[in-house]
């Protein structure tokens, strides 16, 4: 992988090394801009892209014959079941506990706003590391279901001990707590929560956990039994690198009646998990391609993928940490981080500052890092390397951080 090699300014040398890199050679991406935003969309490999195109051609050729199950052989839903089975296997679930959807946000809205056991006066808990839209969904419960919304701040620098203490205090201080939103990996700073321990803590108090695993599935190992959660939403177009607009919802067997059907959806029976998701016409080619993406994920190797991502994270973090005044806004305890990281330049404070940094890095350095707000400590610049990023690109990021260290005086 040549992770220790610095390519300097020699594009030909960079190309030569890239072509010999099994990770990089799997991708066909535009390198006119260095992209560190894999947390938004994990680009498909060449093989998955080819499968998606083939499935798109097949769906277009068969059009309504496929959609109406008028073709000989398997029905539309039987063809899609292969994707459901692949997703269930990926997270250690049974097929009847999983439904396909448009992504983690859609799945989590379905779980949160349709959570049935909530009564007026019950409390719900969320943290500053949680995703914006899931915070909106929790606020919806406060505004429309009479819930009391409790907001907590996760300490920085985060450690397993102080994270558990924060959730223990929140649960102890909230005797009427009924629902806890947990974010498996924060999209803001890459913090990995000790989900199993927090979920067990909540369960002893009769508090349900809805787990946002949008950034976790495909980045780190995820097994619903090991985590001990009953409700989970996740994306497949991020770290599994399936086509855009793919994701899944998980509801443990025996808990489905605790999530109401989506807006009274009765196209599927109430006992069917698919009733918890919208049933409009979707990109069926994308959904048919999910098994190909999961097969590619296993072909790469989950452990090898994670080690590559960790090496990328360590390379830029260790370089940036040496720059005077630069703040690395990320936990340092092993197991509490993976690929996603964040930094602040010296003097960077406001949201406007963070947006300015993003513009400068794009326009001056041709590097995409993303301004993110929501942490109690203030906005950050998120860095999310992908498998296709090279050592030269990571070193260029460190050079750009060094060059802009005086941006704010």
| Number of separate helices | 14
Q: H/E element string? A: HHEHHEHEHEHEHEHEEHHHEEHEEEH
Q: Briefly note the structural class of the backbone.
A: alpha/beta
Radius of gyration: 22 Å
Q: Summarize the main sheet.
A: 7 strands, mixed
Strand tally is 13
Helix content: 40-55%
Ends: how far apart?
Answer: 38 Å
| Mean pLDDT across all amino acids | 94
Shape call: globular
Low-confidence runs of at least 5 consecutive residues = 1-17
Provide the spatial order of strands within the biggest beta sheet. Answer: 2-8-7-6-5-3-4
The amount of beta strand, in percent, is 5-15%
Features:
single chain, 409 residues, alpha/beta, four-stranded antiparallel β-sheet, 14 helices, 13 strands, disordered N terminus
Can you put this structure into words, describing what you see?
The structure is a single chain. The protein has 409 residues and is an alpha/beta fold. Helices cover 40% and strands 13% of the residues. The protein has 14 helices and 13 strands. It has a seven-stranded mixed β-sheet with strand order 2-8-7-6-5-3-4, sandwiched between helices. It has a four-stranded antiparallel β-sheet with strand order 9-10-13-12. Strands 1-11 form a two-stranded parallel ribbon.
